[in-house]
Specification:
heterodimer, A: five-stranded mixed beta sheet, 1% helix, B: 9 strands, 22% strand, globular, binds S-adenosylmethionine
């Protein structure tokens, strides 16, 4: 006997609820319970057998009511918090349950069905009554029940076409049929005081109605797609909505003096990825909301980011400083630069005044005036050391060291740097624990770059440096990492100098991306003989670069190990946070943003007018400080770090996972790396731990422009992904460090035309012996088959064989070698398995051990030969294939759109010298729907299949037959992909993807 | 599923334009017929096309039933009649009587029966699909409810031995539907025309040989739900589901699968 257990599940979450210090989130049939203050998972409990939990209600008596599809269940909270399953409480009804609530006594349950009936049943599962209003049996998409007392309870129901039906479920009387919306109603609720009805619809609007009169009061517009769920809070003064457009919006229900009610949109939070936020709840005492979405993420949202810690945004004009703080300003005097510190801020004016802002007392004071710093000044500092560096364009510098509270100048140093007559830039960075570094650049391109190392304590010069400046080099950022000076420049170029060497020539990394300014370079990690640092570029690119260095800090070479582009505007900087997440910041249109790039969500944003202004951003222990000038006014925005986790669950993809691939040839940390390619056009590089079963996502690759078709590791460090528009990308994985793996786009396959329209459906790879070169087969949606040679030295693909099967779409391809022949097995949508013998056509030889040998022939393009053999196995399209070569036979496992699965065995016919196939085992009606993927595992003795009917099956194939040994329901809808890996303990891990993702364990 | 407009311009799209069909769906019905020949029956008289707009199925029905006959040439006593029902208005088609109505509404049945002078239909088809929300289980349920509504109507209007064809999506609970249909028809087949994309879950149920169970009188009533309507269908009354009961595994049968349209016909997944 063999056994399957589900270890981890990640998929859409349809509803969330706060209760005390918990958040209850429904994941398919499961209920996951978190402590929202810590993010800790308290328990995961199976509530329903197969149906998904669509809604939950928590009674005062400590019972939980959960419902979804035709299931409903009431179970004690105590069991939900501890037990693995409360499925024994599940009941099933005859109609879809749109909504369910406890009655006033909490001894009975009301269930609103999709045919607008209320079923009443007691906790012993006995039906008590069926309530309905005559004639109203049109199908509902939504509805809710509001219980006010024993004899006062209402049903509000939203129909598929325009209507909102309000009825008394005790007296079975209908009050209103509200018909103001257009299209289906997706949610309708009653306010807590019973005076207002709120509804939302297909038409993207929210409407408020008067419960007594049925009058339409107001319409709220704002969402850019359908709205799924609503909730009143703050004594019905506020409403929160979630939508298909990924946002959660807060509305105030404002009553004007004339009594007119309006919905005013107060806040928009981009809470989830790609599509669909399904659930929302509010914890009023903390002023936070929690949302759940199709991406499986549970997001905690601060509803009062600005007011929570006092006023977070402060604005000061120089005029105000004169009046309120008694610092006399001249006419036309302006802020010229500033640097945030722990105590507040130091700023300089255009007349050389040095001002200090104390953020505790909110007061400004004049520290000193340096008349040299009139008109032009550049302002930087070292926040940890309370050191400010201000320069003018005549190579004159003012360096100040301030006391802890910023009120007194401990040390002051006025420097004039004689080597340069003029400066256009002055950049400052930490040198080491005891000193800082100032880089000065002259406007004359022939002048050298000048560096000063200053003591943190005495501000005295410790060392001076000169660096030869490369051509076309203009400094834009500076960092010192391990005795290396790393300077960012325009045109996406980075220059690196060794500080220990006499000769200060530059190691140049040119044109990393398209060519904008480098905005930051940041140390990431250190390896024996190598360093990794990150580089951000104003145009949105960020890169991780590895440089190989000798003991004498000689740079041997560099390698870009990761490159990606942010989806939003200008990129100004990045850092790794305390959770090892990669955080980026910059500007998009008129906003400054702070974004968690690893987990893909916005941490904060601030309206500031856009990128073209003076600004500064620093991180402190429990807050960030953004300072910017807008309309001559200085604004200080404190962005406090949320005291709760931003997400309780990170989620994975916003849409269906189309393919999964495990890097099975090598483990990573205590588990394996894997990639998921999704309909959302992204590829995620993630990790699963084989002990904790936790899943950790590192990167979201955005290079594909259409939904993914396939992705697959072809070696330890190479992965290939394909999608529509003839996109095939070759990625290189780098796992040198344990903090995170990197994956970089190495090359893409040439397309057949400029605006390609074909899908690359699948591919297969065969390596050439003793090299990292390979032969690649690609198959297309127009029946084309192409064979390429990839030369790793040149990093180039060359087309070597081209041809076409017939006219139908091809779905799978696999190279196999057998009897010193190279075959390409292809499956089309016509149900055949087609075998091409390309031994003659390909210009590589096959060794006796069936490996490809490079015989240095000139590679010319040849035509694809006619297929050697084909055999019809399925009635319609073959969805997936796996192959195995054993004892001079080729075994092909196929699954089809015809709900069937087949095992076809090919053998060499001794007379014709050709392969001939017979279908050895074929199961019709193996599933009720398309069988979408399959994978061999357990030393190729078992076959896993997934189907859209959500039944996963495992067959024993050791006797060349398909013997079903396990089947199990998966909660993952649109089940479409899988991959497997055998572990050393004899068990296997099965990864199943669709709308969500599951990790299963299989044991003999 | 986010198809780009280019994607839609496949072979069938272009072919439909050429042949004057209002939608590429026409080929789905034609290919189903290639396999099952239900439209080739010379005795076919009364047919109902549910969820018919914009009307390409009705065009196919009209062309095959009235081969080359103009509308003016049809005689008074000709019993042949096509009724096309949709929520949306439809522009006229020769030999087709249009009815703008909701197929889930009980009154629609009477209107059709009136048009047929209370005679039974030989063939009912439905190509209906509701809007999708993205909640897979809800979308599948609503689709099945639409099929059940069509089926409800069909049971009241179809002659014994008649044929019912409807669009389905092969999701998680499709076998529950197969089971239900199994009580009413001699043969239930899940058919997939080659003009229907392999990448979509769309397929068609072809239900052949209508046999209402003995003693079961289908009757449409405003106040009973689809579920209640089909109650009593199962022969052993002990297994009648109660309104609510402890979770149990329902009977699920898998229908036979049949691909239609022949291999020489175009593949809708191919792009050129
Ligand atoms: C895919 S189209 C049918 C195409 C049609 N067979 C053809 O070939 O032109 C689906 C149709 O179902 C209709 N429909 C959906 N629900 C309906 C209902 N309850 N009653 C009537 N028609 C409905 C829609 O209005 C839509 O026109």
């Amino acid at each position: 006997m063999s056994e399957i257990t589900e270890l981890t599940h990640c998929g859409p979450s349809l509803c969330v609820k706060f209760f005390e210090h918990y958040v209850f989130a429904a994941y398919g049939p499961l209920l996951k319970i978190y402590e929202y203050k810590t993010g800790k998972v308290v328990n995961t409990c199976r509530v329903l057998k197969k149906n998904k939990v669509h809604g939950i209600s928590i009674g005062k008596s400590g019972n939980i009511l959960a419902y979804g599809a035709r299931s409903v269940s009431v179970f004690p909270m105590s069991e939900a918090l501890k037990k693995e399953s409360v499925q024994k409480y599940e009941n099933i009804t005859t109609e879809w349950i749109t909504s369910s609530e406890f009655d006033y006594t909490e001894k009975n349950i009301y269930m609103l069905t999709c045919y607008n009936k209320i079923l009443v049943y007691n906790l012993e599962s006995k039906s008590i009554a069926i309530k309905a209003v005559p004639g109203e049996r049109s199908i509902l998409y939504s509805g809710s029940i509001k219980v006010f007392s024993d004899d006062k309870a209402y049903a509000v129901a939203g129909t598929v076409m325009n209507g909102v039906i309000i009825w008394d479920l005790i007296t079975e009387k209908m009050f209103h049929n509200l018909t103001g919306h257009e299209g289906a109603i997706f949610n309708v609720i009653l306010s807590d005081d019973g005076k207002l009805i709120a509804s939302c619809s297909d038409d993207r609007s929210i409407k408020l109605w008067d419960f007594t009169t049925g009058q339409e009061l107001t319409t709220g517009w704002g969402h850019t797609a359908r709205i799924w769920y609503l909730k009143f809070f703050d004594n019905d003064r506020k409403l929160i909505s979630v939508s298909e457009d990924c946002t959660c919006r807060v509305w105030s229900v404002s009553r004007s003096s004339t009594g007119k009610i309006e919905l005013v949109q107060e806040n928009i939070i981009e809470a989830h990825q790609i599509k669909n936020v399904w659930g929302v709840d509010v914890q009023e005492s903390e002023n936070i909301a929690v949302t759940s979405g199709n991406d499986g993420r549970i997001r905690v949202i601060d509803l009062a980011p600005v007011s929570r810690y006092g006023n977070e945004l402060q604005s000061f004009s120089l005029n105000e400083l004169s009046i309120k703080h008694g610092i006399k300003m001249e006419k036309g005097e302006m802020f010229k630069g500033f640097q945030p510190f722990k105590f507040g801020l130091i700023a300089a004016t255009s007349l050389g005044k040095i001002l200090m802002f104390d953020q505790i007392s909110n007061s400004w004071s004049l520290l000193m005036t340096d008349s040299r710093l009139t008109s032009y000044s550049i302002f930087h500092g070292i926040k940890e050391e309370n050191i400010a560096v201000i320069a003018n364009n005549k190579s004159e510098l003012l360096v100040l060291k301030l006391s802890e509270d910023g009120k007194t100048i401990i040390k002051e140093s006025k420097l004039h740097y004689d080597n340069l007559s003029k400066t256009i830039n002055c950049l400052v960075t930490k040198f080491d624990e005891k000193s800082l570094f100032i880089l000065l650049e002259s406007p004359n391109p022939n002048d050298q770059l000048q560096g000063l190392q200053l003591s943190n304590n005495t501000l005295e010069i410790i060392n001076e440096y000169t660096f030869t400046k490369p051509k076309n080099f203009t400094t834009s950022s500076v960092a010192i990492i391990e005795n290396l000076l790393i300077i960012g420049s325009r045109f996406s170029t980075v220059g690196i100098y060794s500080l220990t060497k006499e000769q200060k020539e530059c190691y140049l990394i040119k044109g990393i991306n398209e060519g904008d300014n480098i905005t930051s370079t940041t140390f990431i990690s250190k390896l024996p003989n190598a360093l990794i640092f990150s580089v951000t570029s104003r145009d949105g690119y960020y890169n991780f670069i590895k440089i190989h260095i000798s003991k004498t800090f000689e740079i041997a070479k560099h390698e870009i190990i990761y490159s990606n582009k942010v989806a939003r505007g200008f990129l100004e900087g990045s850092f790794i946070d305390e959770n090892d997440d990669f955080i980026i910041y910059g500007f998009k249109s008129s906003l400054f943003y702070l974004y968690n790039e690893t987990k893909c969500y916005e941490l904060a944003s601030q309206l500031c007018g856009g990128a073209h202004r003076q600004w500064n951003f620093e991180e402190f222990n429990d807050y960030f400080m953004l300072v910017f000038i807008q309309s001559s006014t200085l604004h200080i925005r404190r962005i406090n770090k949320l005291k709760f986790p931003h997400t309780l669950s990170d989620g994975l993809h916003g849409r269906e996972i189309r393919d999964i691939t495990i890097r099975s040839s090598k483990s990573y940390k205590n588990g394996y790396l894997f990639c998921t390619g999704s309909e959302d056009t992204g590829i995620r590089l993630s990790y699963f731990d084989i002990t904790t079963n936790e899943i950790n996502t590192y990167w979201f690759e955005r290079q594909h422009v259409s939904g993914l078709q396939t992705c697959s590791f072809i070696s330890n460090n190479l992965m290939i992904s394909t999608s529509a528009r003839e996109e095939l990308f070759l990625w290189k994985l780098n796992t040198d460090t344990e903090d995170r793996p990197y994956m970089n786009l190495l090359q893409h396959l040439p397309t057949s035309m400029d605006t390609p329209d074909l899908r690359i459906m699948d591919f297969s790879v065969k390596f050439i012996e003793e090299t990292v070169d390979f032969v690649l087969a690609t198959i297309y949606s127009d029946s084309t088959i192409k064979i390429w040679y990839y030369n790793s030295d040149e990093n180039k693909f060359k087309l070597i064989i081209g041809g076409r099967y017939e006219t139908c779409c091809l779905t799978n391809a696999n190279f196999v070698t057998l009897n010193q022949k190279l075959y390409c097995v292809v499956t089309p949508t016509d149900g055949y398995i087609v075998v091409y013998n390309i031994t003659e056509a390909i210009q590589f030889e096959l060794s006796e051990s069936n490996t490809l040998v490079n015989n240095e022939k000139d590679l010319t393009q040849t035509a694809l030969p006619m297929y050697e053999t084909r055999i019809r196995v399925h009635q319609s399209g073959i969805k997936s294939m796996d192959t195995q070569v054993l004892d001079n036979t080729l075994k092909v496992y196929t699954t089809g759109d015809d709900n069937a699965i087949g095992l076809t065995i090919f053998k060499l016919d001794t007379s014709t010298k050709k392969l001939e196939g017979i279908t050895n085992s074929f199961i019709e009606r193996a599933n009720a729907s398309t069988i979408t993927s399959c994978s061999l595992f357990n030393n190729n003795s078992k076959l896993l299949t997934t189907s859209v009917d959500q039944i996963v099956k495992i067959y024993d194939i050791s006797n060349d037959q398909l013997d079903l040994i396990n089947e199990r329901y998966t909660t993952i809808a649109d089940t479409g992909s899988c991959d497997t890996i055998d572990l050393s303990d004899g068990s296997s891990r099965l990864l199943i993807g669709g709308v969500g993702f599951s990790l299963w364990k299989w044991t003999q | 599923m986010g198809k780009s407009s280019k994607d839609k311009r496949d072979v069938y799209y272009r072919k439909a334009k050429e042949l004057g069909y209002r939608a590429r769906s026409a080929f789905k019905l034609l290919q189903l017929n290639e396999q099952f020949h239900f439209l080739d029956d010379p005795n076919l008289k009364r047919v109902v096309d549910l969820c018919a707009a914009p009307g390409s199925w009705s065009q196919v029905l009209s062309k095959t039933m009235f081969k080359g006959i103009k509308e003016s040439e049809v005689t008074e006593d000709d019993e042949r009649k096509i009724v096309a029902v949709d929520l949306q208005p439809m522009s006229p088609i020769d030999h087709v009587t249009r009815l703008q109505a909701d197929i889930t509404h009980p009154r629609t049945l009477n209107k059709i029966l009136e048009l047929f002078n209370n005679s039974k239909a030989d063939f009912v088809c439905s190509d209906g699909a509701p809007d999708v929300t993205g909640l897979h289980d809800l979308d599948e349920y609503v689709q099945q409810q639409l099929i059940m509504s069509a089926l409800q109507l069909t049971t009241c209007i179809l002659k014994e031995g008649g044929i019912f064809v409807a669009k389905i999506f092969r999701g998680r609970d499709i076998n529950l539907l197969y089971t239900q249909l199994g009580y009413l028809f001699e043969q239930v087949i899940c058919a997939k025309p080659r003009s229907s994309r392999g990448t979509s879950l769309e397929a068609f149920i072809v239900c052949i040989g209508y046999i209402p169970p003995k003693g079961w009188q289908p009757k449409l009533d405003e106040n009973i739900s689809v579920q209640e309507f089909f109650q009593g269908l199962k022969t052993d009354s002990k297994n009648q589901p109660r309104v609510i009961e402890r979770y149990y595994e329902e009977e699920r049968n898998i229908a036979e699968f049949m691909s239609c349209g022949g291999l020489q016909s175009f593949d809708s997944d191919a792009t050129y």
